[in-house]
Amino acid sequence: MTHRDERPTADEMLARTAGDNAGRGRLRVYLGMAPGVGKTYRMLEEGQRRIERGTDLVVGYVETHGRPQTAAMLEGLEVVPRRRVEHRGVVVEEMDTDAVIARHPEAALIDELAHTNAPGSARAKRWEDIEAILDAGIDVVSTCNIQHLESAADAVATITGAPVNERVPDAVLAGASEVELVDMSPHALRQRMRHGNVYPPDRTAVALDRFFTESNLTALREQSLRFVAGRVDAQLETIGGGIGPGAATERILVYVDDGAATPRALRRGAAMAAALRAPFLALVVDAPSTATAGPRDRQRDLREHLDDAVDLGAEILQVEASDPVEAIVRIARTRRVTQIVLPYRAVGMMDRLRRGTFVDRILAGLPDVEVHVVAAANGVSDAYRVGRGD
């Protein structure tokens, strides 16, 4: 029986990322929005290609769900016999992890990453079995639905109304060498189901009316696409080392001060973030040792603006810096911000000549970021776009 303290921590799993540890296998995952999009079929296709190239590959565990086309893809592949486990008088078959490790192929196909093993198994979850196989130096190709990812499970349960009991830690997929999305439109998946290609006829009608509704599948597809886009963005950051054209995901930052234009700037930033489905950040900069100083009405206004930012769903960032521009540039680079919204504030001629305008200095420090300036309600204009340093 597995003890929880024997399981690897998230930090330990991330330390194993992408086969960086000498001798550790590489994990490849086919990710889908829901059952039936073709993840197992694609995994078996890859297995057949690897066999043709001369790779020593076995099937550790594949569940065909009675689908003839999927079962046909097993032809010619070596299947490691399953382990039979009896629980409460019922015999179930599980992957024989020890047998896979003893066989020690170059690669193994192992379906259903989130599967919960039968009581009495050496490990509670299949992803833990896969970790043991990877540690043995064997590459693994697996499958997973977005609903089983820990960070997405609660949102999926809210969307679909169905609890998600089998979950995979985000660190498992973060440590994968590759995650490939198996995509399909909601309409196409529902058609597959109607044609009997996913579930038996007696289950299809209920599934279509409950979990596999058009709206549920659309939301699940969005979750899948956003997850994969986030991985691509992180990879581009690693390759490119910064913000700008390399960023795959928009990120909106609003600078929050006590000025009259800030509420409108926050609303504009929130609207942009919603339209782009982008992270929304609100930054307030405190002068060193003066965080609580200043006229009471200004402190009151600033607190009200921060309350507005929270109500609009922003992530609040509060930093100390003597120069707000320096802080904005630093935070924007660190958080890979692509668009900045600034509340307009008039600058005196002497300051303009001595230091340049607020906007000019930000554009000089962030030439690839688009800057928007928003005036107060009684200002000359609601908003205008400055540009990306051009």
CATH topology of the largest domain: Rossmann fold
In whole angstroms, how far apart are the ends?
Answer: 63 Å
The structure class reads alpha/beta
Please give the order of strands in the largest beta sheet.
Answer: 3-2-6-7-1-8
Q: Report the CATH architecture of the largest domain.
A: 3-Layer(aba) Sandwich
Domain module count:
2
Estimate the global geometry from the Cα principal axes: elongated
Strand composition percent: 15-25%
Mean pLDDT: 84
Major β-sheet profile: 6 strands, parallel
Q: What sequence of helices (H) and strands (E) makes up the elements? A: HEHEHEEEHEHEHHEHHHEHEHEHEHHEE
List low-confidence stretches. 1-6, 242-248, 379-384
Discrete helix count: 15
Helix content: 40-55%
Description:
The protein has helices at residues 10-15, 39-52, 68-72, 97-103, 126-135, 150-160, 170-174, 186-194, 201-209, 214-240, 262-276, 296-311, 324-334, 349-355, 358-365, and strands at 27-32, 57-61, 78-79, 83-87, 90-94, 107-110, 139-145, 178-182, 252-256, 280-286, 315-320, 339-343, 370-374, 383-387. The model is unreliable at 1-6, 242-248 and 379-384 (pLDDT under 50). It has a six-stranded parallel sheet, sandwiched between helices. It has a six-stranded mixed sheet with strand order 11-10-9-12-13-14, sandwiched between helices. It has a two-stranded antiparallel ribbon with strand order 4-5. Helix content is 41%, strand content 18%. The protein is α/β, with parallel strands linked by helices. The longest helix has 27 residues, at 214-240. It has two domains: 4-240, P-loop containing nucleotide triphosphate hydrolases (Rossmann fold, 3-Layer(aba) Sandwich); 252-387, 3-Layer(aba) Sandwich (Rossmann fold).
